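From the pipeline queue, job 12 of 40. The input is one protein chain; the requested action is below.

Action: predict structure.
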Amino acid sequence: MRRDTTSWFSHNLGMEMPLVAYGHSGFPLLMFPTAAADYLEYERFYLIDAIKEFIEKGLIRAYSINSVNRYSLLNKESHPAWKVEMLSRYDKYILEEVLPLIRNECGQDAKPLTTGASLGALLAANTYFKHSDDFRGTIAMSGSYDIYNYLEYERFYLIDAIKYFIDNGLIRAYSINSVNKYSLLNRESHPGWKVEMLSRYDRYIIEEVLPLIRNECGEDARPLTTGASLGALLAANTYFKHSDNFRGTIAMSGSYDIYNYLESYYDDNVYFNNPMMYLKHLNDDYHLPRLREADSIVIATGQGNYEAPDRSREFSALLHSKGIPHLLDVWGHDVAHDWVWWRKMLPHFLGKFVS
């Protein structure tokens, strides 16, 4: 099997970009690596061997390129705007540099098929759907096609809003994924599975995330939880179930009763992941006394578009009935269920806790 490698300095990306081509003829296949891997990944993991028959018979000529994922979506140090700027530059690199090379070898009318797995599937699909006049189609394997998962609190500048506290060493912020798309927001799932996923998520936080935080911040570290909208429910649920492991919560624009998502289904997982349920009946000698000594519970909401302040008021009334000290802060009628207000809320309350 013919194998040719080349490399050049990309004027679009400002870096050396290698490429490997397999085969002597056939329609072109453009391959995007997974995650932060390189142009030789598909060779190392025998995917090239798996399609060797097509290559040796001259049915396809496969081109495997580098990605820039480590500088874009997977770069935890970069601003979200730079991450997507790198994706745009990568797109131009493909159109202005890789595609002309392929057409020089396969014919000026060649329309490559794109392919990739995992994060490579996103890149393959994105290239084809943006440029279907230049590409034949795509084989996208095991991909996720929404880049928002990589960018949420960064892309909506909530991290920028609390940058002062981070830069001055007052807080260390950890942002994790949710499983909402597989649990409460999954319209195809049985309610029993939705709450089972919430219980597994709770164990993930306690058994996996919390140890990582304590390894970096000290074995006695008790994180403050926070989140907005559905994230407020998750933040509050984590704290109120595990007040011995967490300091408190800043819950913004939340609803604290999951029953709306469950079609009247009920089991133990529903009860123990529904703060409006389990707190109502909490009368033990361990958690309730600890909660009654809390000093870092904030329930915040606006009263503007798409806000539901009565849900926060109901939750506050429940906490009050149990003797759990907290701050209910209801902002004005101009305060909508939106990032612009959460960017104001979070630093406002953090300022109270770290001063």
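Job complete. Residues 181 and 187 are 9 Å apart (CA to CA).
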